[in-house]
Amino acid sequence: MIIVMDKSATQEQIDNVIDKIKDKGLDASVSKGIEKTVIGAIGDERILDPELLESLPGVQQALHIVKPYKIVAREWHNEDTIVNINGHLLGGENIQIISGPCSVETPSQMAAAAKAVKAAGVRLMRGGAFKPRTSPYSFQGIGFEGLDMFKEAASAQDLPIVTELLDVRHLDTFLEKGVDVIQIGTRNMQNFELLKEVGKVHVPVILKRGLSATISEWLMAAEYIASGGNHNIIFCERGIRTFETSYRNVMDVTAVPVLKRETHLPVIIDPSHAGGKAWMVPSLARAAIAAGADGLLVEMHPTPCEAWCDADQAIDASELKTLMSELTQIASILNRKI
Amino acid sequence: MIIVMDKSATQEQIDNVIDKIKDKGLDASVSKGIEKTVIGAIGDERILDPELLESLPGVQQALHIVKPYKIVAREWHNEDTIVNINGHLLGGENIQIISGPCSVETPSQMAAAAKAVKAAGVRLMRGGAFKPRTSPYSFQGIGFEGLDMFKEAASAQDLPIVTELLDVRHLDTFLEKGVDVIQIGTRNMQNFELLKEVGKVHVPVILKRGLSATISEWLMAAEYIASGGNHNIIFCERGIRTFETSYRNVMDVTAVPVLKRETHLPVIIDPSHAGGKAWMVPSLARAAIAAGADGLLVEMHPTPCEAWCDADQAIDASELKTLMSELTQIASILNRKI
Amino acid sequence: MIIVMDKSATQEQIDNVIDKIKDKGLDASVSKGIEKTVIGAIGDERILDPELLESLPGVQQALHIVKPYKIVAREWHNEDTIVNINGHLLGGENIQIISGPCSVETPSQMAAAAKAVKAAGVRLMRGGAFKPRTSPYSFQGIGFEGLDMFKEAASAQDLPIVTELLDVRHLDTFLEKGVDVIQIGTRNMQNFELLKEVGKVHVPVILKRGLSATISEWLMAAEYIASGGNHNIIFCERGIRTFETSYRNVMDVTAVPVLKRETHLPVIIDPSHAGGKAWMVPSLARAAIAAGADGLLVEMHPTPCEAWCDADQAIDASELKTLMSELTQIASILNRKI
Amino acid sequence: MIIVMDKSATQEQIDNVIDKIKDKGLDASVSKGIEKTVIGAIGDERILDPELLESLPGVQQALHIVKPYKIVAREWHNEDTIVNINGHLLGGENIQIISGPCSVETPSQMAAAAKAVKAAGVRLMRGGAFKPRTSPYSFQGIGFEGLDMFKEAASAQDLPIVTELLDVRHLDTFLEKGVDVIQIGTRNMQNFELLKEVGKVHVPVILKRGLSATISEWLMAAEYIASGGNHNIIFCERGIRTFETSYRNVMDVTAVPVLKRETHLPVIIDPSHAGGKAWMVPSLARAAIAAGADGLLVEMHPTPCEAWCDADQAIDASELKTLMSELTQIASILNRKI
């Protein structure tokens, strides 16, 4: 850690900072510049709190120089992690598209969706049985019954299922009912109690980015899961909140190269929630794969205009098929396979 | 609801929208302008989903004209709600300052804090036993044992206690241990499962604004609590996330007059988390009360430099006393009392 | 325009709004819903100011239903505009990459850059003689002398030149010295005096998006240029400002499909300024073309580590060549040509 | 400057950084920690560019430890600067309210406004003759003729005038016509050519904050003016752009204590543009003064509903009078005078 003192800091204030550092078992090195004095703390700086040091008299700024995350950091684990989802690989050279409807509605809707997903060459299926909705008066999902419908329809096409966990009390039932990948949604990215619980199981977890979460906070949220023992983590960018009002969110494609550099874990993108309109999805999906993403979460619905939620953002079966063909070609330019 | 059609919309597309509106049991009125056709849906528009309508061919935009929230809206309940916390009133002409340390640490720290809080003329005490922390490696609070310490120290000074609930599984124990006001933190503002549960009890709830939650989302989160039956809700602005990096968050003082217009429920501000530095607190606290806030959450610590968390933002006992005097004078200019 | 009245609006207030609309020569239609009254203004609503109407008693909200921009809107001009830059087409099926150094430094640097740009198959060259810098103490560009150096080096390779205009008083000299495309930078997107002046000439203009400009404001800025008579306008997305601090800006790739829908004018992206680091450029550049952009502005420098400004974001000659090959392949998947 | 090397940096890379620092005439000190090596550059680090250093191989991060601004920094000039506007002091213990209409419209409107401003006890008058408008089709102000009207009306009440300069070519005429304070608007905060020109004259300048300008960029913009020789600079916060859509901007009251710490120059707030609605103005104005601002820019109009621009945000004469009384009382609590 580096502590920069105020221009007017006294020797007594400098000594006080050095004492605090030594109290924690670290060493201190002092370097006097022309305008300011800088103190370096040598040792495992993760135990020093920069805010505490900044509250000491005469301190201008305290900065960590090592990253606050460790298990998820590429700095400590150089090779790409490849997540295995019932035999389907995600990461490294392997790209996976995950598709399906926003909400589970009826058995026939799910059967049609599963068939369309399979027919388009997609290997993993998504669907929501529990829906986090801004309004208490909106449709909240059909619950565990929906999970059964979903599993049955997907299994008939041999597709592993991805679904969102909202409530820590549901985790055991999710596992019993055969959920293959647990999704942690945007609003729960910093629901630390939920993160701790999914850290204790071994099923892969898709961790969506919070609406205004920084890359560093997102990596720390993954570190919560990883530190519990579950290293099967997939980051999912799904649009961030900005000042722009012409579209729902801004898909942050820069997060892809940055995360790939910071972490060894795979990174996927959800272009459907990012843009919020079906007509934007092909453009955003292509951009995501061209940027180097390891996969996508794409909403599709057999009959989008009749969907019970987020109707506006689901593409239909034929659009999914065309998209898969474009994405496969882009992947091959990058020496990857879908 | 108002539906604006594209300039190039066909009569068939217009008829299709009208059919969808009538299917839901509402009436439709059509108004043809020079450039565009506008359709109005007449009836209880809350059952119409603007996103669904926008996905229909030929529709440019669909807009709600009634507010999506109802119980919390001033439109439907004109007088100020006054929340009663063990006999201390908050709302209307009554301003309450709530103060105490960020974290519960030791019995002697809590006893000293409670005495200082009382001595400054403050009537309600805050303290955290469970702490939501960005890093899994940071101090996470001392848990239920801390809650007991806190209740004991506060009761000795006859101060009701305010503390944060992180985990839905802790609610019963919180009530058993005598928590007087439950705080829902920033990261949980849209943890809908937690909101539903606190909606079922009757203890007052402080609902902090999410880091990048809009006023409308915040009101809807309160509507989750209210629709469960608990109308003792206090909004707490605590700084929003913006592009600015010189301070932790931007305290959104404009939220005060806007919320006071939109809702009958009380609105308080947390200047300590907003700014993130103790030296900013007096300035921000005065601004909050001058803007019309119904109260404050202010961090104080008997010995700030030794605090276990967020040291940098706690003021000390003497600063709290000075601040209380300034705030009391500002309140009286506005014909209110602290 | 649609005016939504408050639930409690009186008949007198409704009549007053109708009078104001009629005063402006428009017609009014009134539609009484169950909860609220809505008034429609029929005629050329561009002359009504929503803010003025919202200041009238009893008005909840006033909304334009026609777009505020007209010349640049696809609504009024359906085919893609193709900008012709000395015989090189940009727009429609034609993609153009524009490359070169951030700053003009020396004749030999510019000669080397021009050769590398040409060798990579790029047809247009960029370079800055006047630099807008955050600090008055930073290098501000070498001025008109640099413009001469740039023009000479580029002409030797038969490359039209693109350069930024900072000062309205420089416009004539820019044209005399043979600038082929004028760039209006981020900080000047709403320098309306500058926009009005470039609207009077006929040289193509690249209009960069303001750091936090909405799509609508950006289109209106282009309308300033277009309403002066210059319709050779190219939009350039270059990263927006958000809460994220891990990278300089967030490249807003969603702006591409959205602008392509709203305007007939071409849209390019500057991945170098967006990310701020050379290692991000290939990933972001591929994403931009895959999303449907009509071109790119890419910084390259013959010897990046010796660059006088923005060193960190320039790729070198060999990286440019590799990138051009990838982009050409992606373009062909989309049936376009580079 | 501090340069933090990557964990995997080689000795050769470290030596290369040291060479670059020495090339610039500074000294280097190396400090090897357990995980990383840190290099300090000793001397006048303002000549080192952190981005250049970060582009060198093996460098993780380069950080300035001295502030990039100097003339405007309190670090180098501890006492408050008091700006003298024709005998009226602004800064130190002196608070000034500046009021008047958004736009100059007619001689009678300006005469009525000047009388109302004077009657409320306000000592400085504002008004716009040239208006920066988002749309080229909106009213752009009545120009120099309006300036004459404004000066005449204000002089009759002995009020110095404050008005916005949009075009560098207008500066001389502004001075000839007796403009007492030049306002640089939000959209021109980084119009560096304009800043350089107002830096050459001696009339006080109100520098409004850019819509999404950081505190540091704002201070650097002031440094542009100051480095030209004009030190009569007044900062004006006027609301920043965020994700919130319920109000026009977010008034950043935290900027007040932060700027007062960073700079010796005065800081005022414009609550009218910040909120965008007249009914918010009293609340925001009180908050600004309570936070420690040195003054306000408040829009007032003799007949707001007839205003030609920004009607919705102007208060009327009687509201201004009431507000002045509240503000005077708040100022006296802080031992200041209005």
Automatic annotation (TrEMBL), chains A, B, C, D:
Its EC number is 2.5.1.54. Keywords: Transferase. It is an enzyme of class 2 (transferase). SUPFAM superfamilies: Aldolase (SSF51569). InterPro entries: Aldolase_TIM, Class-I_DAHP_synthase, DAHP1/KDSA, DAHP_snth_FXD, DAHP_syn_2. The keyword Transferase applies. Gene3D superfamilies: Aldolase class I, Phospho-2-dehydro-3-deoxyheptonate aldolase, domain 1. Pfam families: DAHP_snth_FXD (PF18152), DAHP_synth_1 (PF00793). GO terms for biological process: aromatic amino acid family biosynthetic process. GO terms for molecular function: 3-deoxy-7-phosphoheptulonate synthase activity; aldehyde-lyase activity. The keyword Transcription does not apply. Residues 91-333 form the DAHP synthetase I/KDSA domain. Residues 1-66 form the DAHP synthase ferredoxin-like domain. It comes from the Bacteria. This is 3-deoxy-7-phosphoheptulonate synthase. It comes from Methylophilales bacterium MBRS-H7.
